[in-house]
Amino acid sequence: MTAKEWFSDFARGTSFGLGMIPGVSAGTMAIVVGIYEKLVGNISRLRKDFWNAAMTLIPICLGAVIAAIVLLIAVTYGYDYAPFAISCLFTGLLLGTLPIITREVSFKEMRTKDWLLLVGGFLLAALIGVFSLLSKIFWHFDLESYFVAGEWWIYPVVILVGFIAMAACIVPGISGAMILHIFGLYQPTMGIFIGDNSMFHNTDRIPSGIGITLCLLLGIFLGAIASSKVMNDLITRHRKVTFEAVLGFILGSIPAMYLNQDVVDLADGGYTWLYEVTPGWEYGLGAALLVLAAVGFYFVSRLVIKRQQEAKQNAEIPAE
Description:
The protein is mostly helical.
C-alpha cells in the first residue's frame, strides 16, 4: 500500500466514525465514500489472510477511531445540556436514511408474514427501550450506576451488545450506536471516557472502565468476524425479508429514542421525567435539528442509492 492510498483510506475511515452517532449508519457512510466493499471484504478475509487484511484495515479503523472520539465528546456534552434536542437530531438522522431501506421493501407485494416480520422488528426495538425505562422506574434498575460500580454481570452484557452493534453496522441503514442507545447503554458507555465521572476524573473507575472497554472491543471484534459473512449471506440470499425486519427495527427505534433509561432521573425514592424540565427553547431547537438532519441525510441516502445502482450496472456490463 502506497502512502497516498494509506492516507486516502484514513480520510475515508473518518466518515465510518460517524457511525458512533445514534441514527447514523456506519455502513451507509462507508458506501458514500466508496470504502464499504473494501472494509467488509477485508473483515471477511481476516481468518484466511490476517496480516494483509489487517494492514489494509488499520488506516480505515484509525480514521474511524479519531473521528469517533471527536464526535463523542461533542455529542456527550451536547446531551448533557440539551438531551431532548440531541435525541431529535438522532431521530432526524434516522429518518433521513430510511430511503436506503424502503427501496428494498416492496410494500405492494408484502403478504401477511412479511407484515408480521416488519411489525415484529418494530416491537422488538420499541419494547427494548420501553422495558429499560420501566425497569428504572419500578425496580430502580439504573445501568449508569451499575457501570460506575463495575458490577460483574455488566461485562458479559457489554460483550453481547458490542457484538450486536457491530453486526448491525454491516447492514447499510442501521446504526450500531443506535443499538447501544435503545439498550440504554450509550450514555453509560460514553460516561466511561467523557464527563466529570469518567475514569479520567474518577480514578476509582479505572479498573472497571478498562475492563468494560476491553469487553466492548472484544464484542465488536467478535461481531465483525462472525457477522460480516452471515449478514452478507442474509442480504444476498434473503434480501427481501432481511430488509423488512430491518425496516421494522429502525421504525421501532424511533419511540425507543424518547422512551429509555435516559429520560428519567431517580431521586428521593421517586423519579423526574426529562420532559418535565425541558425548556421551551429546546423543543424548538429539537424540531429544527430533526428537520435539518432528516433533509440533509435524505440527500446522503439518495447519493448512496445512486452509487449502488451505478455499481450494479457496472457489474452487469460484460468485460471486453
